[in-house]
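Thread amino acids onto this structure.
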């Protein structure tokens, strides 16, 4: 069933919002969902997460984030963001947002890296980068020597200095959701 039709049915009360979220995530990002074989999602407990709202001074738009301390693979983290918060792993479009997320994650997470929503893959001798939410790729803060060119990678944000690194998607790390 099409996501727009499901939304209309959910608003009318004839289809559940849970069904809408499940179908929408399958339509939007099938390759990410296909790699997760762990089954149902267990949402983080309150003591495993920290909410953060950041207002962009230029656009006056408020961004909503959840930093989750429970370690997951990239694909599992993406599924938690989708099913539990109706969002995605965070896409970062400015240095200011990057540093604010890095500082907050540094104080909240007992790990040196957290997942963000960037995916990279080699393409014609260079690296193709994209956000899992399909937003525009207009900012990057890669550590020297990154992104890696050898194969498809997921991306982590350093909680120490804010730089991004290519990381194998099966690593289990804390993560940042945006909704």
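Threaded sequence (179 positions):
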């Amino acid at each position: 069933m099409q996501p727009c039709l499901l939304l209309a049915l959910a608003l009318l009360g004839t289809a559940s919002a849970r069904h809408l979220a499940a179908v929408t995530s399958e339509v939007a990002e099938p390759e990410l969902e296909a790699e997760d074989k762990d089954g149902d999602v267990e949402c983080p407990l309150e003591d495993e997460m920290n909410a953060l709202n950041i207002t962009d001074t230029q656009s006056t738009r408020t961004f909503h984030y959840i930093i989750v301390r429970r370690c997951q693979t990239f694909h599992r983290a993406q599924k938690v963001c989708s099913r539990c918060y109706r969002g995605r792993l965070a896409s970062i479009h400015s240095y200011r947002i990057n540093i604010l997320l890095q500082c907050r994650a540094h104080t909240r997470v007992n790990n040196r890296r957290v997942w963000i929503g960037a995916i990279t893959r080699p393409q014609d001798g260079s690296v193709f980068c994209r956000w899992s939410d399909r937003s525009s790729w207009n900012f990057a803060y890669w550590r020297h020597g990154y992104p890696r060119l050898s194969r498809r990678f997921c991306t982590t944000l350093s909680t120490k200095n804010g730089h991004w690194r290519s990381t194998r998607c099966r690593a289990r790390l804390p993560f940042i959701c945006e909704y």
